[in-house]
Amino acid sequence: MKTLIIGAHGQIGYQFCTLAAAADFPIRAMIRDAGQSEDFEKIGVETVVADLEQDFSAAFEGCDQVVFTAGSGPNTGPDKTLLVDLYGAVRSIELSEELGIGRFIMVSAMRAEQPMQAPEKLRPYMAAKYAADVLLRRSRLEYVILKPGRLTDEPPTGRITTDPEAVAHNTISRGNVAQVLLAVATNRALRHREHLLLDGGEPVETVFS
Ligand SMILES: NC(=O)c1ccc[n+]([C@@H]2O[C@H](COP(=O)([O-])OP(=O)(O)OC[C@H]3O[C@@H](n4cnc5c(N)ncnc54)[C@H](OP(=O)(O)O)[C@@H]3O)[C@@H](O)[C@H]2O)c1
């Protein structure tokens, strides 16, 4: 069985796919632009073209796990926050339940549980993340919710912390999040867990062993 990656051509998604391919972990990359498939051919990863704003149920066929790391990004308005970060995530969870997917790994965001504490501009995004997390917790799915801090493009160190008191910053590299995703995706014993993620001092494989 395979793991479906939603948001596979994103900055975290593609790093995760590269690591998964190198580890011979079976995945299917969901992309919305067929032109992106060349990038996946290079690393030997199968693709399916589908869009969260349309019917994407066919993408799940033959998969038993989902990694959701899609996002509308900072260059679009609240309309896309609603359609991608909220509706897209909610439909992904609902379809996973309907289609018998066993496990769902969500890339949420640090402090998504308190959207009204976020800067005003970020509140709709945080509210979308909050609502998707609530639905996932209440679903029948085995889940792991990952809550990274502010993402950076620093080279991955392979070392993180889940304790905000352990470090004096609120950031994590996308590469470290990708490493965490692989550690979690390959360890099915982890279920009904939620973790804050920041760059830190503990090896990823130790934290998620
Ligand atoms: N920025 C932060 O500081 C921060 C902090 C915590 C958590 N996060 C979360 O981290 C995750 C990934 O971050 P990232 O930096 O890797 O983001 P990214 O590079 O913007 O990647 C997002 C991916 O989502 C895909 N996507 C957008 N709309 C879609 C749609 N309608 N259907 C299917 N796919 C769609 C994009 O597709 P295209 O490639 O076609 O554009 C892209 O591949 C997101 O869930 C984000 O909310 C971000």
Describe this protein with a few key phrases.
209 residues; single chain; binds NADP nicotinamide-adenine-dinucleotide phosphate; 6 helices; alpha/beta; globular; Rossmann fold; 9-stranded mixed β-sheet
Question: How would you explain this protein's 3D organization?
Answer:
The protein is α/β, with parallel strands linked by helices. It has one domain: Rossmann fold (3-Layer(aba) Sandwich). Helices cover 34% and strands 24% of the residues. It has helices at 11-22, 37-43, 78-98, 123-138, 174-185, 204-207, and strands spanning 2-6, 27-31, 46-49, 63-68, 103-107, 142-148, 150-152, 159-161, 171-173, 193-199, 202-203. A nine-stranded mixed sheet has the order 3-2-1-4-5-6-10-8-11, with helices on both faces. A two-stranded parallel ribbon has the order 7-9. Strand 5 (103-107), helix 4 and strand 6 (142-148) form a beta-alpha-beta unit. The longest helix is centred in the middle third of the chain and has 21 residues, at 78-98. The two termini are 22 Å apart. Bound molecules: NADP nicotinamide-adenine-dinucleotide phosphate. NADP nicotinamide-adenine-dinucleotide phosphate binds at residues 7, 9-13, 32-33, 51-53, 69-73, 84, 88, 107, 109, 148, 150-151, 174.
